[in-house]
Amino acid sequence: MAIRISATKLLNYGRCPYCYFLRYEAKIEVPQAIYLVFGQAIHQLIASFYRLTPEQQAKRLKRGLTILFPTSKQSAVKLWISLWEDVLKEKNAKRFHNPCKIRFRGKTKTEIEKEKEKYKELGASMIAKYWEDNRNAPPPVAPVERRFTVCAPGRYDVLLVGAIDQIREIPYGSGKWYIVDLKTGWQDYGEEDPRLQFPVHHDYQFTIYSWAFRRIFGKKEAGIIRYPLGWKGKNPITEEKIDKRVLVTPRNEHHYADLAVLIKSFLLSQNKQLFPKITGNHCWYCDYLEICSHPELITSQPIPVSQFDWGKVDIEIIREQLEEVAPLKKFSQPKLL
Ligand code: SF4
């Protein structure tokens, strides 16, 4: 019997095995961060934009309309607002996100309401932009959120399971198929510095998609498009909106070899029940941070470096110490004073 591994679980393990353990092995339910719930809702709505059948799309085109389900930017935004309101209703929680509670940054009721509003506005701007940028674009060439179950690299006893956001042919009719992954996060990897782009070009998520694509379609993808949603910001003087940047990343056999090692490590961890904590900046966003920091969260007051007190030199103490150490180290101590 083959072992099925979901891409989400594997990626979670890759970031921090202990986090994987808490979520999937110990099955501890904790509230989910609002930005994750938000990201899922945006993905769900964008996927629904492509729900028309080819016949319905052809009719729309004849009338000079978009093939996206909402016929205008306003109706796309309206759909978003109603979805976001539904997502936030406690009675709908299980339908949209699991576990059922949302974790907010704010503590008071007012802060939480502000946060919900902020995400509603952010979502509206992302949806409006996506609709505008894609209103005349050809539809994806495979079902959106295309599910896959494929053998893992180098192993017939392990199946990788997951879903790809979109597959697009660019230019349409060229035969060049790209994997598209939509991102709702703030990161912008457009800089040409290879060090800054490293996380994208070696992201296991994209490696899994590329591997699955080649198994499903029997051909090589033209690239993987990291498509960030929304605007980067506004020019403070002209008020003009600044675009984020799309990054296309390739995959090859070296990436698949890395993935094979990750899978092997995942299986060994399961076997030995060893799940080390990997701490880093990703912990800021971890839903399990409070549990992980057992017994209690430690905080300390940060001090500006210029105000850090190294203490005063006491020449007598230093001399005494050096004179004590000198005979042990068998070197002669030059006279200090
Ligand atoms: S807080 Fe950091 S170390 Fe702890 S489980 Fe989460 S990601 Fe891992």
Description:
With 337 residues, the chain is α/β, with parallel strands linked by helices. Helices cover 44% and strands 15% of the residues. The chain has one domain (3-292): Alpha-Beta Complex (Lambda Exonuclease, Chain A). It has twelve helices and eleven strands. The strands form four sheets. Strands 6-7-8-11 form a four-stranded mixed beta sheet, covered by helices on one side. Helix 3 (34-48) packs across helix 5 (73-88), helix 3 runs parallel beside helix 7 and helix 5 packs antiparallel against helix 7. The longest helix has 26 residues, at 109-134. It starts with a strand and ends in an 8-residue tail after the last helix. The mean pLDDT is 92. The chain binds iron/sulfur cluster (SF4). The site of iron/sulfur cluster (SF4) has 12 residues, from helix 2 and helix 11.
Per-chain topology:
Elements: E1 3-6, H1 7-15, H2 17-25, E2 32-33, H3 34-48, H4 54-62, H5 73-88, H6 93-96, E3 102-103, H7 109-134, E4 146-152, E5 155-164, E6 166-169, E7 177-183, H8 194-201, H9 204-217, E8 223-228, E9 231-234, E10 241-243, E11 247-249, H10 253-272, H11 289-292, H12 315-329
Parallel strand pairs: 1-5, 2-3, 7-8
Antiparallel strand pairs: 4-5, 6-7, 8-11, 9-10
Helix pairs in contact: 1-2, 3-5, 3-7, 5-7, 9-10
